[in-house]
Amino acid sequence: MNTLPQQLANGLLLGSMYGLIAIGYTMVYGIVQLINFAHGEIFMTGAFGALTVYLYILPDGTNMLVAVPLMLIGGAIVAVLIAVGAERFAYRPLRGAPRLAPLITAIGLSLALQEVVRNFYPGADRARAFPGLDATHDIGSVTIKDADIFLILAAIVCMSGLAWFVRKSRTGRAMQATAQDPDTAQLMGIDTNRIIVVAFAIGGFFAAVAAVAYGLKYGNVDYRMGFLMGLKAFTAAVLGGIGNIYGAMLGGIVLGIAETLASAYIDEIPGMQQLGGQSWANVWAFCLLILVLLFRPQGLLGERVADRA
Amino acid sequence: MTETTTTPPADRAPAPAARGLVPLPPATALPLLLAGGIATAASTFLAWTWTAEFPGDLTVSGYPGGLQWLTFTAGLLTALFALSAYRVRGLRWLTPAGNHAPLLLVAVGGFGTTWYTVLAITIKLGGLANLEPGGFIAAVASLVPLVGALALPAEHRGEDLATALGKRIAKPDRIPAAEATTPWVQRAAITAVAVVGLIVFTYGIDTEYGELFIGYLIVVVFTIWALHTAGLLDRFSQLLAGNRSFALAMGFLAAIAFPFTQTDDHYANIGVNILIFGTVALGLNIVVGLAGLLDLGYVAFLGVGAYTAALVSGSEFSKFSGVQFPFWAAALSGAAASLIFGVLIGAPTLRLRGDYLAIVTLGFGEIFRIAVNNMDGDSGPDITNGPNGIPSIPDLSFLGFNFGEAHDVGGFTLGRFANYYLLMVLIMALVVLVYTRAADSRIGRSWIAIREDETAATAMGINGFRVKLVAFALGASLAGLAGTVSAHVTYSVVPNPYQFAGSTPPNSAFLLAAVVLGGMGTVAGPLLGAALLYLLPEKLVFLQDKSLLAFGVALILLMRFRPEGIIANRRRQLEFHETGQLDVPDTTTLTDEPAVTKAGT
């Protein structure tokens, strides 16, 4: 049986999740040239925010059609608050400091968020069960779950919403202006601090959407989930061209498909029999990052040269 | 927990006149300090509690024990500083500026450790009833110098309580220059400091229970702070600058002397681990502190070195079990393997902006762990034996000297870990040499130039990519070298320790925290940071679970309030003085400056 369509679908789904998280990296980077290393952890707190709504606020046995939107709201509130708080209290005071300072702050923030969840969220020192949407549907030779439908719909809605927002709304156009030239934008009367906060907030919201999709798809969340997902979402952002929101989504999908195909088929290549399977998927994703940086550092859709001082 | 709080607005208090913070006649202040200090020291000769259940046996009258020694030291120091404030001949050098800040700080140190002990007894044994009269006497006696110090007349007019307190513990702007002394006196002073330093450090490593370590930390922190505000640390660093080679030799001797003071090989083990950790942190400091490249997967290079050494060690579980390299060859191949990986990772990424390097190294660190985990012949090629790692690595043997056996040297028995400790001292000396020579050379200045402003440095003709690659590769090979020894010390290599963040060192987050906390760009900073970060979780078991949380918060707060770390690089600090960049001079804080948005890049 041909497994290729199924693998492509899996890659597309995984890639949409990377893309949603990558939006947070790419928007913040586009405006303040800061890699928010803690973004993976914001994704993780979004998952725990949604889990809190499910476990402690909703009555048992709530219909998932009602529960999922409420969990999304809960996760989004937590993730957006943490993203905006991080900007306000950790990054903003360091604007103008050398690059190393915010990077180290971001590492600290990332460790602190992980440890706060591990130490203080009940039962979070190991994986916690998340309600799954496991009913399956067959479309031709491809089997997908309800959670996958949620993911695809959420990704499409969020991306179109974001595209509209950035192009048409006043704030969105102010964002474009700030990304192009923050000083001139400020002279034109744009409150750049507010724009930066909005960028962090949108990133947090998208991360929360991805987090709920992750929980529904895999059925559990843990305090370390943000680390690798964040790393790969960053890879996706670089792959697509950092600073470009469409690039982030495209990069995510390319990365997801590449990773899925590599783990499924690479062992059929002579000499690489033992390098297939899920355990090596991360290695291939990482190798892709190195290759992209080597041959096309500006990314698939990026225009600017990457080595701006 | 991400908030970084600024100083809270202090309550407005009426401006104190020339009086102290405690309304006592200023004339009583110094006598209170002196008498209190002596009384505190004397109280340790009494029994503080009735049962030996509290560790350290504080039940004996007649001589101090356990935590009482710390109180005794603090009381004695208080009395000495008080005598120095009286301008007693022979002790004036203790407070060259004649300021009162050191008095307050040593008094707080004595008060802190005594009250900590008394409270710990009360809580641990369940009630005040467990205190003998001696405990109460000590508590009262240690309060007296504190009251005395606060009653000292104010040297500055304080506007409100917080600034008044802040000024009381501030270092004076000008320290009178030391009198000219003969070289022999200077060398004697350095020797004395090295001996005291060795004793203090050894005491810290040998603390047997958490309470003792906390009391030790209280005394040491406040004493060093007091010496700093007295201006003695500045004087000492001038002394060091004048006798550099002698000071280095003394430091080296003190480091070598450490295992001879140990009767238990367990503490030598802690010493080895601190040295390995410190060496790796120093290597990372070349990359982060000098060249300004954020390497988040540094521990993977340590892992590469360790695995290489394990593979060629002759261990029967190694893939190449027939191969047994002599140590020099194993060390070289470990360093070379790390070098290769460093170049492989560095070459594509160092052409780009620094941010990419951070994320690529983070990825590399994770990939290394995944890869060695998988290379067990089952889910990958059979090289590293997967999660089981490579156990039973034989001990090193060098010119007939077997590191695994105890040796008698001049009446002292050096155990297995003491042997490795001495080997690591040599390696650390090598790394310090490489570090200082590189930092002062043409390439070191290129690194600093690149760190400060890459565009300007490139315009001045520096090949940015090449010098960055040299820094990165040098850092990687030093880590690999340390890794080869660490593989032999721990008998086995397993994938787990080589990750980004974990609760025990070494891991990349710990290393970065050690460098940043200690002071980027200095030699002593990362070593101090490594020793602190290793000892804290080791001694305070209850902290182990929360140590990563504390590191995360500490990194955020450090970057916000003291980005130059505990030991600031003085030259850099001056350089930064004009630009107000990464290192912030002591006198100003970032909050005083208007928030500047970085001009369009």
Automatic annotation (TrEMBL), chain A:
UniProt keywords (A-Z) are: Amino-acid transport, Cell inner membrane, Cell membrane, Membrane, Transmembrane, Transmembrane helix, Transport
CDD domains, alphabetized: TM_PBP1_LivH_like
The UniProt entry, under InterPro entries, shows: ABC_transp_permease, BCAA_transport_permease
User: Where does the sequence pass through the membrane?
Assistant: 12-35, 42-58, 64-84, 149-166, 195-216, 236-258, 279-295
Its primary localisation, in coarse terms, equals membrane
Q: Is Membrane there in the keyword field?
A: yes
Where does it live in the cell? Cell membrane
> How does the UniProt record describe the way this protein sits in the membrane?
Multi-pass membrane protein
| Gene Ontology cellular-component terms listed | plasma membrane
Q: Tell me a GO biological process for this protein.
A: amino acid transport
Is Ribosomal protein among this UniProt entry's keywords?
no
User: What does the similarity note say?
Assistant: Belongs to the binding-protein-dependent transport system permease family. LivHM subfamily.
Can you name this protein?
Answer: Branched-chain amino acid ABC transporter permease
- This protein's species is Streptomyces doudnae
TrEMBL record, chain B:
The compartments listed are:
Cell membrane
Q: Where are the transmembrane segments?
A: 29-49, 69-88, 100-123, 135-152, 184-201, 213-233, 245-261, 267-288, 295-313, 325-347, 354-372, 418-436, 469-489, 509-535
Question: Which Pfam families does the protein's record reference?
Answer: BPD_transp_2
Q: Which domain of life is it from?
A: Bacteria
Please give, as recorded in its UniProt entry, the membrane topology of this protein.
Multi-pass membrane protein
Q: Which GO terms describe its cellular component?
A: plasma membrane
Entries under CDD domains matching the protein: TM_PBP1_LivM_like
Task: State what protein this is by name.
Answer: Branched-chain amino acid ABC transporter permease
